[in-house]
Amino acid sequence: MDTVIDARGLTHAYPDGTTAISDVDLTIERGERVAVVGANGSGKSTLQLALGGLVAPTAGEVTYFGETTDAEAVRERLGVLLQDPNDYLFNTTVREDIEYGPAQLGLPRERAERRVASLADELGLTDLLDRPPFRLSGGEKQRAAVASVLAFDPDVLLLDEPFGAVDAHYRARIRDLVRDHDGTVVVFTPSLDAVPEIAERVLVVDRDGSIAADASARAVLTDGDLLADVGLRPPTTVRVFAGLLDDSDVPLTVPEARERLRDAL
Ligand SMILES: Nc1ncnc2c1ncn2[C@@H]1O[C@H](COP(=O)(O)OP(=O)(O)OP(=O)(O)O)[C@@H](O)[C@H]1O
Ligand SMILES: [Mg+2]
């Protein structure tokens, strides 16, 4: 398999002395779907920034595509969605923000325009494209930020809280876009309900910024004790069925839960 991201001893302490991530070793292979979960303040966003080359490690290093430790050399292959969409939208119009990535990459104008139009349609942004980004609602901003990351079709998506302020309809749209992404996806989130729909592998960040577990989605999401130790709890479906079925049978998603109930009723 091709390794896209390899972190060794990755550590980041902020200037005030807060060690946000501590001695993280992880390898992500091409095509993997990974969720990084952890309580508020555990270090998910810092890990995302360090993996995305947007903060420099204070110890350890990250190797990209088995080639380089310089994130700038592979910048156009990394799609980094920051937790706060306001950090992302800085052009005069939403359209310019979404076109920015493809333009930087020198994508042919026609292809870029088609891509922007299709993402705008998918994410309900078509009527908002000529607005200044600061005049959007929170969820609209988030949809625009997701569109601007997907627009240049990066090999690796590093998405911090892509569902944060988004309603159920667009949450499903973003989920489908992430699922359909032809590459590697790493989603950072404190909320476990959406995890089974997007990830097969789950990394759990402990409160001290170390990795507490790295296993299959099922193994992590049905381990109530592990999750409680790090300040999380299993997804709703798992909590409903816990104790009623074996861990290997507990439904992780709503459609799975419906099926189990249909069988039982
Ligand atoms: N700029 C900063 N300076 C100092 N400490 C920071 C800074 N940003 C974050 N921290 C601290 O680093 C730790 C990890 O923060 P981080 O934002 O990575 O957590 P998180 O897991 O993403 O949390 P959330 O779920 O709330 O998004 C926390 O203790 C936080 O207070
Ligand atoms: Mg965060």
TrEMBL record:
Alphabetically sorted, this entry's keywords are: ATP-binding, Membrane, Nucleotide-binding, Transport
What GO MF terms are annotated?
ATP binding; ATP hydrolysis activity; ATPase-coupled transmembrane transporter activity
Annotated Gene Ontology cellular component terms: ATP-binding cassette (ABC) transporter complex
Location within or outside the cell: Cell membrane
Please name the InterPro entries in this protein's record.
Answer: AAA+_ATPase (IPR003593), ABC_transporter-like_ATP-bd (IPR003439), ABC_transporter-like_CS (IPR017871), ABC_transpr_CbiO/EcfA_su (IPR015856), ECF_ABC_transporter_ATP-bd (IPR050095), P-loop_NTPase (IPR027417)
- Transmembrane ranges, per UniProt, are none
* Pfam families in the cross-refs: ABC_tran
The record's function comment reads:
Probably part of an ABC transporter complex. Responsible for energy coupling to the transport system.
Q: What is this protein called?
A: ABC transporter ATP-binding protein
Which source organism does the UniProt entry give? Halarchaeum nitratireducens
Give the source lineage, highest ranks first.
Answer: Archaea, Methanobacteriati, Methanobacteriota, Stenosarchaea group, Halobacteria
